[in-house]
Amino acid sequence: MTRVELAEHLEPGSFKPFTVVTHAGRFKVPHPDFIDIPPHEEDEPEPSYIIAYTRSGAVRFVILASIDHLEFDPLAQA
């Protein structure tokens, strides 16, 4: 998954809660504020990670290459 692909799912106007499924675990994303995509300068390489926050505020660094897929709750999309 790329930063751009993930950012598309975080748009406030069209956001639907989802779960990030990685090789090491799962992270629920009930609101766009639970994911932070680090900025970078155009002449620098893109960071290979995102920052995910748990409901308790714990910080998790998630390597983009380790994201297998996103799961959307069918009830949240209704």
Largest sheet descriptor: 3 strands, antiparallel
Strand tally is: 6
CATH topology: SH3 type barrels
By CATH reckoning, the class would read Mainly Beta
* Termini Cα gap: 25 Å
**Reading side by side through the largest sheet, how are the strands ordered?**
2-1-6
Which shape, going by the Cα principal axes?
Answer: globular
Q: Element order, helices and strands?
A: HEEEEEE
Q: Which radius of gyration do the C-alpha atoms yield?
A: 13 Å
Spans of at least 5 consecutive residues with low confidence: none
User: What would you call the quaternary organization?
Assistant: single chain
Q: Which bin fits the share of residues in helices?
A: under 10%
Structural class: mainly beta
Structural domain count: 1
Number of helices: 1
Average predicted local confidence, pLDDT? 90
Tell me what portion of residues adopts beta-strand conformation.
25-35%
Summarize the structure.
By secondary structure, the protein is mainly beta.
Structure description:
The protein is mostly beta strands and 78 residues long. Helix content is 8%, strand content 35%. It has one helix spanning 3-8; strands at 18-22, 26-29, 35-36, 49-53, 59-63, 67-72. The strands form two sheets. It has a three-stranded antiparallel β-sheet, with no helix packed on it.
Supply the key terms.
78 residues; mainly beta; SH3 type barrels; three-stranded antiparallel β-sheet; 8% helix; globular
What's the arrangement of secondary structure elements?
Blueprint: H1 3-8, E1 18-22, E2 26-29, E3 35-36, E4 49-53, E5 59-63, E6 67-72
Antiparallel strand pairs: 1-2, 1-6, 3-4, 4-5
